[in-house]
Every structure is written in structure tokens, then in C-alpha cells.
Amino acid sequence: MPKKQIYLTGFMGTGKSTILNCLHELCGYQKVEMDEQIVLEQGMSISDIFAEKGEECFRNMESELVKRISAMDNVVVSCGGGTVMRQCNVDEMKKNGIIVLLTAEPQTIYERVKNSHNRPLLEKNMNPEYIASLMEARRQKYEAAADFVVKTDNRTAEEICLEINKHLETYDNSKKDVKLMLKKLKNC
Ligand code: S3P
What per-residue confidence (pLDDT) applies to 181? Predict the structure, then answer.
């Protein structure tokens, strides 16, 4: 059965949204950035949803969105960093999708996210030590959910997409012309 969705998962700051945009350009698949979609539908920022409705409510919104996405064809998805913490989400994603885990070292993540203020879980804990401890607490679930893992430290989006593509070639509906990909990558 061909896979219909490519899910990018991983801790905050592992480059899911950047790689989403590249893959969208490359595959011609539709794209869904889950946080962006929730913000759009709720008319509220992620920080405001956490503050006013609570984390549990945000997690329910994520689960409901995952269900809708799992019925879509040819879509590349950037998940929230906590999406695969719920097993029901993973089960839904696995029905027809491929789960890619992007990783980075805590220090790399810190450098990438330190100036942003849209991640409520890091807002009062913006330091590499906290990032390392939360990542460690989540590691087992990230790894168990993943079909394959791609490291992102010190690598360009182009290199990361090519590695993802190499893995995807093992799935029947995703064979791509690498030369065409490279040409397109210059523009993303
Ligand atoms: C979260 C990650 C965020 C966002 C929310 C919670 C998490 O997404 O969904 O702040 O629990 O790791 P990004 O990974 O896109 O930053």
C-alpha cells in the first residue's frame, strides 16, 4: 500500500518547518505545518492557547488535526515537537504515513530557538540543560515512532532533504529524480 503522508517529527528546533518547505517544493506534495494550522483555525497564537486554554486542550487540537491529516493524500507534514508523545497520534500517523525523526544536539537547538518566543514549554527554561533533559525524557517515544532518523547538526537543508529522499526511495511511491531535486533545491 503506497504511503500517503510524510510526517516530520522531532524536538523543537530540529528544522521540521524548514525541511517541510523544501520537501514541499521537491515532491509537489501539499504541506501542512501543524502549529500554523492550529493557529489559523483557532485565531490564537500557540502561547495564547497554552495560557488561556491549557496544554491538554492544545494536545486535543493536535490529535484532532492528526486524524484529519491521516485521511489526506500526498501531503508532507511538520508535526509539533510533542505530537508523537501521544500513542493515539502515532497509531493514526502510521496507518498510511512515513514518520521521519529529525534530531539535533541540545546546544544546536538552543542556538536555533533562543531568540524566539512562540514556544511556551521553553519560555521560562531557555537553556541547553533544560532542552537536554526534556529531550532525554522524550527520546524513547521519538525513536519508537520513527521509520528512520536524520541528523541535522551542521548540515544544510539540501543535504538533509537528499538523505530523506534516499530513505524515501525504499517506499514505492516516492522515487524521485535526484538531479531534478538538486536543481529545485537551489530555489528553496
Ligand atoms: C511543542 C512544540 C511546538 C508546539 C508547542 C509544543 C512541544 O512545536 O507544538 O509549543 O511539546 O515540543 P515546534 O516543535 O514546531 O516548535
Answer: 58
pLDDT confidence tier of residue 172, bands split at 50, 70 and 90: low
Residue 174: what pLDDT?
A: 45
Which among 32, 35, 63 is the best mutation to test ligand 1's pocket, defined by most ligand atoms within 8 Å of the CB?
A: 35
CA distance 45 to 27: 29
CB 106 within 8 A of CB 135: yes
| Alpha-carbon distances, residue 140 vs 47, 85, 144 (angstroms) | 26, 10, 6
Sign of the CA dihedral running 10, 13, 15, 18: positive
Nearest C-alpha neighbor of 80 from the set 106, 49, 105:
49
- Write the residue with the smallest CA distance to atom 12 of ligand 1: 81
Taking CA atoms, 153 is separated from 14, 61, 107, in Å, by: 8, 30, 10
Pick from 21, 32, 18, 26: nearest CA to 156:
18
- Centre of ligand 1 from the C-alpha of residue 81, in Å: 4
pTM for this one? 0.92
Contact between 16 and 61 under an 8 Å Cβ cutoff? The reply is: no
Residue with cell 531568540: 115
